[in-house]
Amino acid sequence: IIQEGGQIQFADQKQEFNKRPTKIGLRSLSRSISQSSTDSYSSVASYTDSSDDETSPRDKQQKNSKGSSDFCVKNIKQAVFGRREIEIAEQEMSALMALKKRAQGEKPLAGAKIVGYTHITAQTAVLMETLSALGAQCRWAACNFYSTLNEVAAALAESGFPVFAWKGESEDDFWWCIDRCVNVEGWQPNMILDDGGALTHWIYKKYPNMFKKIKGIVEENVTGVHRLYQLSKKFNNLYCCRESILDGLKKTTDMMFGGKQVVVCGYGEVGKGCCAALKAMGSIVYVTEIDPICALQACIDGFQLVKLNGVIWQVDIVTTCTGNKNVVTREHLGHMKNSCIVCNMGHSNTEIDVTSLHTPELTWERVRSQVDHVIWTDGKRIVLLAEGHLLNLSCSTVPTFVLSITATTQALALIELYNAPEGHYKQDVYLLPKKMDEYVASLHLPTFDAHLTELTDEQAKYLGLHKNGPFKPNYYRY
Amino acid sequence: IIQEGGQIQFADQKQEFNKRPTKIGLRSLSRSISQSSTDSYSSVASYTDSSDDETSPRDKQQKNSKGSSDFCVKNIKQAVFGRREIEIAEQEMSALMALKKRAQGEKPLAGAKIVGYTHITAQTAVLMETLSALGAQCRWAACNFYSTLNEVAAALAESGFPVFAWKGESEDDFWWCIDRCVNVEGWQPNMILDDGGALTHWIYKKYPNMFKKIKGIVEENVTGVHRLYQLSKKFNNLYCCRESILDGLKKTTDMMFGGKQVVVCGYGEVGKGCCAALKAMGSIVYVTEIDPICALQACIDGFQLVKLNGVIWQVDIVTTCTGNKNVVTREHLGHMKNSCIVCNMGHSNTEIDVTSLHTPELTWERVRSQVDHVIWTDGKRIVLLAEGHLLNLSCSTVPTFVLSITATTQALALIELYNAPEGHYKQDVYLLPKKMDEYVASLHLPTFDAHLTELTDEQAKYLGLHKNGPFKPNYYRY
Amino acid sequence: IIQEGGQIQFADQKQEFNKRPTKIGLRSLSRSISQSSTDSYSSVASYTDSSDDETSPRDKQQKNSKGSSDFCVKNIKQAVFGRREIEIAEQEMSALMALKKRAQGEKPLAGAKIVGYTHITAQTAVLMETLSALGAQCRWAACNFYSTLNEVAAALAESGFPVFAWKGESEDDFWWCIDRCVNVEGWQPNMILDDGGALTHWIYKKYPNMFKKIKGIVEENVTGVHRLYQLSKKFNNLYCCRESILDGLKKTTDMMFGGKQVVVCGYGEVGKGCCAALKAMGSIVYVTEIDPICALQACIDGFQLVKLNGVIWQVDIVTTCTGNKNVVTREHLGHMKNSCIVCNMGHSNTEIDVTSLHTPELTWERVRSQVDHVIWTDGKRIVLLAEGHLLNLSCSTVPTFVLSITATTQALALIELYNAPEGHYKQDVYLLPKKMDEYVASLHLPTFDAHLTELTDEQAKYLGLHKNGPFKPNYYRY
Amino acid sequence: IIQEGGQIQFADQKQEFNKRPTKIGLRSLSRSISQSSTDSYSSVASYTDSSDDETSPRDKQQKNSKGSSDFCVKNIKQAVFGRREIEIAEQEMSALMALKKRAQGEKPLAGAKIVGYTHITAQTAVLMETLSALGAQCRWAACNFYSTLNEVAAALAESGFPVFAWKGESEDDFWWCIDRCVNVEGWQPNMILDDGGALTHWIYKKYPNMFKKIKGIVEENVTGVHRLYQLSKKFNNLYCCRESILDGLKKTTDMMFGGKQVVVCGYGEVGKGCCAALKAMGSIVYVTEIDPICALQACIDGFQLVKLNGVIWQVDIVTTCTGNKNVVTREHLGHMKNSCIVCNMGHSNTEIDVTSLHTPELTWERVRSQVDHVIWTDGKRIVLLAEGHLLNLSCSTVPTFVLSITATTQALALIELYNAPEGHYKQDVYLLPKKMDEYVASLHLPTFDAHLTELTDEQAKYLGLHKNGPFKPNYYRY
């Protein structure tokens, strides 16, 4: 979060590189409409990409029903299908809807001009429409070449949002969209909602004068701000991965979990989630770690701590959750048994040394989408998922509930920054107040029909707390 | 299992009806090739159905590479894709491969002429090729209008198996295939491998003379033979459903399990599996039961035992696992909260009173394949999965490992019956010897790198057992 | 269960031997009053055994407050303490109390003269007083030298029950008590409630004429009647052991379960319970099995199946649950690592070859009650619990709830047998009707505030069941 | 941790009060020798307290075998039994033994004069002997009136340690012991190992000149130092309580966990551990929380979040883990159902309003040690454990493994402080370096036969870490 005129500290090169959109990374943050279909259900098929024409959206002349053409999407006619997806998402994003309702009267974002750069999904649409209801004007581009849901983009365009995004953008398209989003006559952004820092970097370099007018930036991944969205991060890592490891493996391989031997590399939050889920489904789970504290936790939690070398020949599945590079080397891959499944749940594409598998003596065979067999000369097959990219993003979906927490946090952060007295947030990267996380959490409790207990005056005094929080010191580990 | 000349006791009408193939039941016992794909991977797309021509297979003239035309499949040219699926299945069906290897020398099925009627999948192909290697001749038809994998059928036809099956058969096609399978000059079946009893019933009625020559019938579901495949049933119910409840819900709804309130109707084996899995993933699970013993088990296992009426207004998911009818009534459906998901994991299509939802005041909206929104006049939506058909079959897949146990048991049963001295199995339905289950289990242990302990002579004497089993009395509850 | 005049089939010698009371077997079926105390709380101490005088009860002249001396207990004055224990037990045995209330009007045991032979605990007292309220006359002896709670025996004697039992009986005392119980002028038993068959055997041998008048015998463990108390057995084995393995290990060794490596020998019901509990508390659990079906279950449930030899050198705990003999041999014991804990949760004292440890080169050191260190010449210590006797009986307690299920079943069995028309149960061992188990279960549901669902007429017809059960076929495996 | 001459910030009055020893708090940090015994095993009985004489240790003349009388213990002759307990503890405290071995050559504590104030248990003895081996001189007093193991104190005295402690000290004894420990001619402490701050406070007030010479203080609970022992705290709270909630309930009530309804107040680390354990054993668990973030975690983990009022009438057990006061009020207690168990796992004695139960209309009945029945006029009984004091300390034991982590951390902290260059730790309370926690963890990995992975140079560079740690930023939440 950077306030007006501030100098931004960008992510170091390594991370920035990983965050930049690439052709290789096939990420899907939303459920794909065609994904779960096994039969030819017609109305669904009617709005999938494959049936579309091949004309580039940039070459099309499209107008929405109000006559506006300030957008660029695949096919404005798909808006009705996208609207249905948005309506379904709204039902599961009640926290954002509640925020919208509560703050609607006072329009806390009146005058805000937000340029956004995220995945374009139904959940993003709910966020944009919330920001709009709170008084903001928004223009949006996609942060990924492939993740855009064309129908949702169409629905947003139809509702009057200047959206510039479609599935299957080229690199040139990608930058063109961003530019169309920012560089518009008579409109100058004063807030940025970024994902990975690329948009901020681009404005900073290309439109330095515009950058000086920016009142605040909301971005999850700038270096040093790891704790920015504690809550949203915890949900993305621990709770989300607990489910998506099962989902991703099942969708790609239809394997049975019971009795399978799995080694999970890394016992951070993602590793903890994966281990818990696999253990619960009857897998035998081994863990590797470099940090003795996490290692000890793995032990106490009932996982045998091993070196990868020690079990690589016997396991059925290898999963990486380290954030490190070359955790699974060509040597490891060589020692795996036939049919061993290899996948990555971590933070980068470098955990498995996939490059080392592109050698003449190995044969690659794509057996289905996101599933490659790498075949040794003796016939041994390794099953590589998503080419070593993130399984949870490539082959699973992030539940709407988790996206709701992220989106609600982003909306609150935008409100906080936009309304902060000048100078309150100095020229630096800032953590959001702990209270904001608590507020986001409280907005999500009704989903679970959960009833929070309130402190009595006497108890609050005893504990030295305000009755409405914050309830924990900053260093508290949830 | 019925031996030569025996009178068969058919399933009562109710069950038989449920077993008969219907257009409504979209079952998929195998992973669908197009299922998990989210991008347009070309080589996969090349052998999906949608791109095929519309000519009926019955009108086509097809020959395999050896010149035979004694088969009827969608497209013989797809054989190479089917062969790859079979090879992958073989790697996971090591028990059958071991059986093939062990028994191959002695050809225990030499002279056997088997007519089969099952789902046509890669796993069935492995079974057929095993039976063939053991000496049998096989002819095969599909037990379901929709479950046939055309590529696999093509691969079998290419290898010389008379297979009559394709995806999307009409009812007329269906009976035509069975007839082509049975009624062939110069070939008379002496063994039947049935699924549901329809094939047996059909031969009995239409070709009574042929029926008298049948030496044995292997069928899983004839009334009174519930314990026939104890092992295979346990795997299909408890272990398989433990995983497929999660898989089916995730694939259709992308929901998050953590914190969801679920009511599971029925705490038999299927219910136990569903409850355990959902609890492990963080759902709050309620159970309904009619049997006080199962009810007490649910209590001790940590599930609140309720009447459906008591919780219907508050739960996020309702799942039926009872085998009963009208467990979820229109009245229950009316009391559900908005977005409540309703699905059936049980044994019949009657558990949810879906018929009652086809009334003028309710609007049905198909939001994706297998997912319908039923919309009340006040806007409330109920999410009905697979139109109340079996979620585990419609929206999930049976893992190859489980299919392997079933197929291995079937192969052993065929060998046992075919080689039994005349009169050993009388004119009645019989349980397979317990030892056979133990043998099937032992063939699957290597999959888990499992090491069985052998009794010493002294221990066997102490326990009054043979060293090689059977190890338990018939009434033992595993 | 044997009806009037029937010939009884006794347990074979092996089992009978194990069932006979021995000085070695220190069983405690009830919570011991002094057990959990760490400080010198006076009023508790006041009624413990240690402070008592040393006079044999047989030499004492005692009368209860009504003047009767037809009993023999340690100290009639302790009755008030025993009554309190009984009252506490009554609160947890609501099923028996409900049975008492329901059947009290009709006195279904009027005329029954029951001689009983069980552990003498507060729960047994509740059973006796229920039988009495239902019309029966009872005389009772203890089935174990050590398990009698003197205070409870005193309370029963004070209430007028002829009880002959105290803690620390000699073998001579033991048989004297049984004789006093049976051989009484003007009173002849017509029903037997036995535990292990010793009482039945004794009457049969010593008083053959009396035996002919016996109308029925209720006994849990006669050979061939394994399924007699399905429900009670399931609770005793699976659910009870799931808790008592933790309790027994904690009470004796104060160990931490998290991260401990454990091998559980045997994956029957007891083994399943032990494995589930230890896994849940974070132990790494290995399993040994001889039966491939149970072995496969262990695999699918997520336990590595091993031979004991393969892991004996690395594990922290070895537990036997097999019913077999010499499962843990001297050779295994020799290979264990220092501080390895060895204990037995199975059915006999022979599972661990304890005898082999009584050799000159090994030193035994009792470090606390039920805990011996066996010390090798190199200083290695093995921690042997309860000298290889049953850990769950020696070092843990059976929860009142489980005892309630057993006692309720016994009471119902006595009623059933006593009221059965002559000849209904023939001269053989019989299973109780399945419906009785269902009834026992239903009596215990209110404990859990559990609400059973009732079948509609339509549903009962559809399932072919009576609305009130039995709900499952005899072979059903819960 | 306070360095030389520093001003200490004491705990606020509330906390200090809780930490001060009281007659009411019956804490036992170690397994009690007589605890698990149910029979009169003689050699154990021979060294229990009850058989001892009543003379106050202060009035006895005792010498150890080397002729020293600089100690005051119950009975120096019990040393042999205490030595055995210490030897057993050593086997489970291998981390401390390893530290002893590694650092023994260099004597990093040479010249250190440590005055200690902790529970006197076998584990403390291992710590003291380690400090001594590293070069320190130690004098020790007990921090609790009741927790001292007399045999261990005797063994320490016999080995030459000036120990002043016995079980059952009066308040006057208590301060006398501390004084004897500190105020000795020719010996002046330069390091303090405190527990709760009372010793530090006492020296500061009574011997201000001595206090100025103190080079460092190691204390776990000084206000503001919550993160001092992250690792040790995590183990004490989460992992330890996960086991001790079961142990404490079982030891006091012999209840069955399966099917019990439990409400856990507070979902911090202790609450999380309790909930996980109870859920795993088949209880139905409800949670109350005041913090919406912890509340949301409870929901996602599968626990129904409620207000205490909403479930108080239906639950079988109420457990508090909040650190708050009056969480369970008299009103709540009044609404509980008969036989409801109430206990406290939290941080203070104030969580349950026990005082409110001391009113004339309620009858208290002590049914066994640590278990009171509070009886309403209508006969309803509430089962109150440990009079509302900490169940985990009163009725369970802290596993040696957890004590080992604490003791190892204390030893390392003493070494760190004693050897730090003057001024390195300023006049304030300090966190120990993160690396120290990692080192403590690594010393405990061999216990689990755990194999840590080492970073390659390339990986360390990629991650920007040193190969030997620290591996995580300070804010990392394990």
From TrEMBL, chains A, B, C, D:
PROSITE patterns: ADOHCYASE_1, ADOHCYASE_2. CDD domains: SAHH (cd00401). It holds the Pfam family AdoHcyase_NAD. InterPro entries: Adenosylhomocyst_ase-like_sf, Adenosylhomocysteinase-like, Ado_hCys_hydrolase_NAD-bd, NAD(P)-bd_dom_sf, S-Ado-L-homoCys_hydrolase_CS. Residues 12-69 are annotated as: Disordered. SUPFAM superfamilies: Formate/glycerate dehydrogenase catalytic domain-like (SSF52283), NAD(P)-binding Rossmann-fold domains (SSF51735). Residues 28-49 have a biased composition (Low complexity). Gene3D superfamilies: Adenosylhomocysteinase-like (3.40.50.1480), NAD(P)-binding Rossmann-like Domain (3.40.50.720). It comes from Monodelphis domestica (Gray short-tailed opossum). Residues 237-398 form the S-adenosyl-L-homocysteine hydrolase NAD binding domain. Keywords: NAD, One-carbon metabolism. NAD(+) binds at residues 268-273, 289, 392. This is S-adenosyl-L-homocysteine hydrolase NAD binding domain-containing protein.
